[in-house]
Amino acid sequence: xxxxxxxxxxxxxxxxxxxxxxxxxxxSIAGPALAYWLNRHGYAVTVVEKAPAPRSGGYPIDVRxxxxxVVRRMGILPQLRDVHIDLxxxxxxxxxxxxxxxxxxxAVAGSVAGQDIExxxxxxxxxxxxxxxHDVEFLFNDSIDTLDQSDHGxxxxxxxxxxxxxxxxxxxxGLHSRTRELVFGPEEQFHxxxxxxxxxxxMPNVFGLCHEIAMWNTPGRAAALYAAGDDDTVHAFLNFARxxxxxxxxxxPEAQLDLVAGTFAEAGxxxxxxxxxxxxxDDLFVDVVSQIRxxxxxxxxxxxxxxxxxxxxxxxxxxxxxxxxGAYMLATSLADRDPAAGFAAYEHSTRxxxxxxxxxxxxxxxxxxxxxxxxxQQRNEMLRNLSTLPAPEGRPAHSALTLPECTPAG
Length: 410
Prior knowledge:
Layout: E1 3-5, E2 21-25, H1 30-40, E3 44-49, E4 60-63, H2 66-74, H3 77-82, E5 89-93, E6 99-103, H4 105-109, E7 117-120, H5 121-132, E8 137-140, E9 144-150, E10 153-158, E11 163-166, E12 168-171, H6 178-184, E13 191-204, E14 212-218, E15 221-227, E16 233-241, H7 247-250, H8 253-263, H9 271-278, E17 285-292, E18 298-299, E19 302-304, H10 307-310, H11 319-334, H12 339-358, H13 373-386
Parallel strand pairs: 2-3, 2-12, 3-8, 5-14, 12-19
Antiparallel strand pairs: 1-8, 4-7, 5-6, 9-10, 10-11, 13-16, 13-17, 14-15, 15-16, 18-19
């Protein structure tokens, strides 16, 4: 069954002047942000989400640079600052569990202390949903089944049953976007593998960690424990290098577990306990580290944004920020323009910013995850020097785009 949220006062859609009807697939970050700005520009917005409710939990995420201005203009920046994660220490460990360096987390992330924010993913999605839920329609526990474009609009059938016609459809449904597959074809043609796989899950905080990250490394392998506060749980993370993406192993849950466990067999530090916790975790997520690179983000009356269009990978720390900025730029580009002109303006104004942020990481060269003994030695020496330096002023890529003004519909 489809769960629907209507406007809070149950007012009907205006009939005196028809509002363009749009559908957004995905209610995580990019989707609700786009819904907010499109509603401000006078569109009648529907958001469809396969989950039964807004997704809670998840790893901490960063909001930095230009994205801070987006959430400020949405009015949710004070709320996000109230739930900012005060991460105080990032400790790097060698293969035997000995301390290599303990550094300022901002120095590693390239964040600006006192400006950039880090929040639990669920706190951001809750803030976005609350900002827009009274003004747009949400269809939870449902998803797009088919799309059929024509001169009059986009005919959509839903997996939960029923069909509707929209003037435009937007795919904000993540790295493995169903919307992108329906309109642009298989993911493989846009998928850029970065040479790593990872497993993430939560586990009991039996380590005494508080407001800190501890990361163990050997060449090609990393294990991290992230304590966002003084909670009784921590986020556990296992990352490992693979020359080719193990897509076959990733298709079956047991094969996923065996792949990760085999890679970290006989590893030291807290890794054995992490592997045991992984096998019973109810929130385990295993995938390859990758980006989405597309020559164009729109086709006809359908456009993509966020990870569906330009996933930068978690290695850049910019996924959520690109989603927020992309949503703002797409909605602003469509103001007073038809779909073709609006989508062209969106790509023209946003692509350079996206590419600059995606280019922060290349294949197999993530600083946090060296793949050779020499690279690990060089990284450790860099960290030892970093521990004596003040936090940086931030990375130019994070703030390389100036937002245009938003002029709401009258």
